[in-house]
């Protein structure tokens, strides 16, 4: 096959792959379950410089609906809060303390009947979060940020489904555009290529388009399934509510309305 045709095919394939990666990133940033990837856009302005979140904090995922952020330096906490809010104003924020978590865990264990001492002792909060080496037990700097994904009630479920469909449709339009642009480039070298090469090149490009679209459809289905699972989780939680802890101060950041915060660009 003509080397120019091969180059045009490869270039178009890379562009289509980039749109697929962008769709995946946008799906992950349209948060349903917790995913550390959603924090990649977060930047932290310390007053002296703008840093990535990973430069100033450690991130852990205690469960599938929460992200824990542990500032390397306590003074960065407010800057991190601002940075996360700019990227994800829909996250629910709690300022927690690992020492308090440990005490609450110990108290709850004392209240429970001693069934059997399985595996000797229950792990402490730092162990559960995978952060044994981050905090020293004797350190006073034990505060961290706990972000909870917004609950997927019926309204948010509809909002999310509409959002992922819009992003998916936008991706499809861009893929079709790249396919058309690729065919146009083929015509520019048609005089230097045989009919057989041209037919093969067009078929290769169509196969690439179909393959990328199939992957985009699969990503859409996976995201829709994730939304449905979160909705079922919400229904189960509301049917069997857990008593509120009066000491727990969970707040939706600045009263953010999730139904007004989604944009397609």
Structural class: alpha+beta
Secondary structure tally: strands: 7
Estimate the helix proportion, in percent. Answer: 40-55%
Rounded to the nearest angstrom, the distance between the terminal CA atoms is: 38 Å
The largest pleated sheet is described as: 5 strands, antiparallel
Give the overall shape, derived from the CA principal axes: elongated
Measured on Cα atoms, how large is the radius of gyration? 25 Å
Helix and strand pattern: HEEHEEHEHHEHHE
Mean pLDDT: 81
Arrangement of strands in the largest sheet: 3-4-6-5-7
Strand content: 5-15%
Note poorly predicted spans.
125-140, 243-265
How many helices? Answer: 7
Would you mind describing this structure in some detail?
The protein has 265 residues and is an alpha+beta fold. Helices cover 53% and strands 12% of the residues. It has 7 helices and 7 strands; from the N terminus they run H-E-E-H-E-E-H-E-H-H-E-H-H-E. It has helices spanning 3-29, 53-56, 77-87, 98-111, 125-128, 154-188, 195-239, and strands at residues 43-45, 50-52, 57-63, 66-71, 92-97, 143-148, 251-252. The protein has a 5-stranded antiparallel sheet. Strands 1-2 form a two-stranded antiparallel sheet. A hairpin with a 4-residue loop joins strand 1 and strand 2. The longest helix is centred in the last third of the chain and has 45 residues, at 195-239. The protein is elongated and about 80 Å long. Residues 125-140 and 243-265 have low confidence and may be disordered.
